[in-house]
From TrEMBL:
<keyword id="KW-0819">tRNA processing</keyword>
<keyword id="KW-0963">Cytoplasm</keyword>
<comment type="similarity">
    <text>Belongs to the RNA methyltransferase TrmD family.</text>
</comment>
<comment type="subunit">
    <text>Homodimer.</text>
</comment>
<dbReference type="GO" id="GO:0052906">
    <property type="term" value="F:tRNA (guanine(37)-N1)-methyltransferase activity"/>
</dbReference>
<dbReference type="InterPro" id="IPR029028">
    <property type="entry name" value="Alpha/beta_knot_MTases"/>
</dbReference>
<keyword id="KW-0808">Transferase</keyword>
<dbReference type="Pfam" id="PF01746">
    <property type="entry name" value="tRNA_m1G_MT"/>
</dbReference>
<dbReference type="InterPro" id="IPR023148">
    <property type="entry name" value="tRNA_m1G_MeTrfase_C_sf"/>
</dbReference>
<dbReference type="InterPro" id="IPR029026">
    <property type="entry name" value="tRNA_m1G_MTases_N"/>
</dbReference>
<feature type="domain" description="tRNA methyltransferase TRMD/TRM10-type">
    <location>
        <begin position="1"/>
        <end position="230"/>
    </location>
</feature>
<feature type="binding site">
    <location>
        <position position="110"/>
    </location>
    <ligand>
        <name>S-adenosyl-L-methionine</name>
    </ligand>
</feature>
<dbReference type="InterPro" id="IPR002649">
    <property type="entry name" value="tRNA_m1G_MeTrfase_TrmD"/>
</dbReference>
<comment type="function">
    <text>Specifically methylates guanosine-37 in various tRNAs.</text>
</comment>
<protein>
    <recommendedName>
        <fullName>tRNA (guanine-N(1)-)-methyltransferase</fullName>
        <ecNumber>2.1.1.228</ecNumber>
    </recommendedName>
</protein>
<feature type="binding site">
    <location>
        <begin position="134"/>
        <end position="139"/>
    </location>
    <ligand>
        <name>S-adenosyl-L-methionine</name>
    </ligand>
</feature>
<keyword id="KW-0489">Methyltransferase</keyword>
Amino acid sequence: MRLDIISIFPEYFAPLGVSLIGKARERGTLDVRVHQLRDWAHDVHKTVDDTPYGGGPGMVMKPEVWGEAIDDVIGDGGPRMIVPTPSGRPFTQELAQELAGEEWLLFACGRYEGIDSRVMAEYGSRLRVDEVSIGDYVLAGGEVAVLVMVEAIGRLLPGVLGNVRSAVDDSFAPGAMRNLLEGPVYTKPPVWRGHEVPEVLLSGHHGKVARWRRDQALRRTVATRPELLAEIDAETLDKHDRRLLDELAFRVPPEDVAN
Ligand code: 6GU
């Protein structure tokens, strides 16, 4: 996958040289190119922003600089373009999966109050452009959001995760564990500062371990993300699940009832 990032703070992307993503780049699985937006500014001050039409606080990023930068970076190619912004569509595991299937992504990082909207209109008529938010809070710029998205997307690329099963088991991945948070995990030693590893995990009984893990996932989801569990496909709940949820006083739709 090729990945271009345009930003006025290329230094933010140093972490992309490290860990799984860094290894993927060394192997050639990922081709990451970070560009300094100011390289396309023409005045001595390398100005990239100006005051907003209609008034109001802050500054808006100028369309001409963005246009020249994007034109040069994409040439006659057609990447999918992602613009991080708190007013975008939510970044979810599903969108990460979708983006992991693309050959080429271009991230355009805005700062200040954002990029002049005509940039999204212009490229929206030539490329697939999505404005994307990583959550309901406001960051000072899109750079950190891009790091989050690149890590989520990168680990889904073939051969990036050491353990193929890790991505399958993700709490938000499509499939069996969808809408359930993962439960607690343990390693050696069996007792640490008086805290014991749950006995069932030492039993070697795979069926009991699987059931215990599922109970823990259900308990954790009820406690911290009940709204996730409320969306679970009722067909994926077995009678043990239903009994546990009943004990926890968590209401799920009954079995064998059409809605
Ligand atoms: Cl993608 N960008 C910025 N600046 N703030 C955010 C965000 C993105 N997602 C949540 N807050």
